[in-house]
Protein: NADP-dependent oxidoreductase
Organism: Kitasatospora albolonga
Amino acid sequence: MTTDASTPPVPQTAREVRLARHLDGAITPGHFEIAEVPVREPGPGEVLVRTDHVFVAAAYQDLMRPDCPLPVPPYQVGGRIGGGEVGTVVRSADPSLAVGDLVQMMAGWGEYTTAPAASFHRLDATLFPSSSYYLSQGPTAYYGMATLARAGEGDVVFVSGAAGGVGSLAGQIAKCRGAARVIGSAGSKEKVAYLVDELGYDAAFDYHDGPVVDQLRKLAPDGINVFFDNVGGEQFEAAVQVAAPHARFALCGALSGQIGGTGGHPRLDLMTAITRHLELRPYATYHTPEQVQAWTEHVARWLSEGRFVFPQTVVEGGIEQAPGALLDLLAGRHRGNITVRFSG
Amino acid sequence: MTTDASTPPVPQTAREVRLARHLDGAITPGHFEIAEVPVREPGPGEVLVRTDHVFVAAAYQDLMRPDCPLPVPPYQVGGRIGGGEVGTVVRSADPSLAVGDLVQMMAGWGEYTTAPAASFHRLDATLFPSSSYYLSQGPTAYYGMATLARAGEGDVVFVSGAAGGVGSLAGQIAKCRGAARVIGSAGSKEKVAYLVDELGYDAAFDYHDGPVVDQLRKLAPDGINVFFDNVGGEQFEAAVQVAAPHARFALCGALSGQIGGTGGHPRLDLMTAITRHLELRPYATYHTPEQVQAWTEHVARWLSEGRFVFPQTVVEGGIEQAPGALLDLLAGRHRGNITVRFSG
């Protein structure tokens, strides 16, 4: 492949992370392989994109199972892992995208991608301090908290799994929308301190410190109006007991990385749910353009106003670090949203 | 008390059904007592109403418990049972109501009631074939099916406990709103036949005939879009498994007469609920004026068009039959909505 003065250099080959074999038990480094493949020049209507940052999501583990129950196709053996990346156009054979454009894609963990221009979405490179800000669970958190649970003025809000990729954004979204009090749960003293000291939670507790229902009732003596669930199990059951009348529940947990886990089948106390007229909204979203737009607009404004902390861990070191970053995320060794920097 | 030519005769004393003692175990005839009390002439702003029909609801059993968890006050020992009646004004000392007016009230099981005119709601006596039609779970069924579950054109709808007071109306409401297929469950072959032969259900099954999930899947191979639940337990769990994406659930069961029963704590399969983006709306309603209005308007039109069967059992024999009618209802010996004719 040749380069000239107007275009960045492009190597002849580049690496990608592939699924080595389907997952049936615990995930290990052996489930991934890194392959070297040719970088293909774009044909008419195509562009070539260099990957700058890739997202790391717990759901990727589920997509490594052949019988994945998620409503998207699971990964194929020999195909790329991943599904949320940002990059820079380095060759273009389509008038809709120019060399240098920042784009979002679902191309997987490869250093370069050649594909039709329509499969990339152009981004505003001036909106955020880093293009990695485009990679988060933000659209999921915003849709659940703003559209489904409708957290707003005066609400008492409880977020389970509050230090995770979704939870660390969801609590702040509620606060920015005027919630009176935002309470979070997490699995360690360090995470509890992080919620209150860095993410603006009004109160937080470690779910290991006693029955969730007792801890929650102490922190929300008049009940909760909104519950944003990332966990299921005991936390869901406690939230029903502590719910105020007409409380709204956005349930997005018990999903990612938790297939076969223990949080997936809580008891639903129907009598309490009925007499309190609760609204239960379990949901999964794969980020429609409208959801991405709503999230991006709001978080950019809140960031510019100094009201929002963007909790992100950027793993340096390139493509070779991606499998380990997923393993670390699944082991609970990260807080907030995780990306791996490939380039840029 | 005197009468003249312009007003109906009124006796000096009349009977009422009182709570003899609070319920702690099984309900028996000994929990009721019938007392003879003076009929009081209305003072300024008051009217005297003769009770024509009283409603019989399973929830009355719950209100007989001192620790009733419903968000309305339980019955007091020595106070009247009941809470949904229609009657006729026989004396008026208020310009807003005239002798002969048909009214609705929440005055309990008494033959006569003297109270402020504002505690009665005037009805249109020409709307229905009998004033007993004003006594039903219709507002509950309509609110759940139309407002919460939003059953409409092309929907496949499942109603559990479909032969009961709410269910026998809910399925027909779905059908009148354009549902493609309405499926009901009940607890006997006779009730199953009644659903299909008389209430216009497209299919029905006896939940004793095998696992609910298998029976439901056979009758709804492409899934259900709406679930209207009167039961909880296994029927709720099955509905989650057979739900189509974005199915709406109105959950009004596991409530009336079921405190301490087995249907109240089903497992919620969160993974399935999340990936299918279900909408779960547990609710109880005590019939707001708007809900009564919406139900009354629609059922009157559907009845006039010959599209609706009003499933009602009217127990004859006056006030002495009321306690037994409640016991029969709780024992499953009635279908549809139950009223007792006191007069009229």
In short: The longest helix of chain B spans residues 289-304. The interface with chain A takes residues 69-71, 232, 236, 245, 251-255, 258-259, 263-284 of chain B (CB under 8 Å). The radius of gyration of chain B is 21 Å. Residues 145 and 151 of chain B are 6 Å apart (CA to CA).
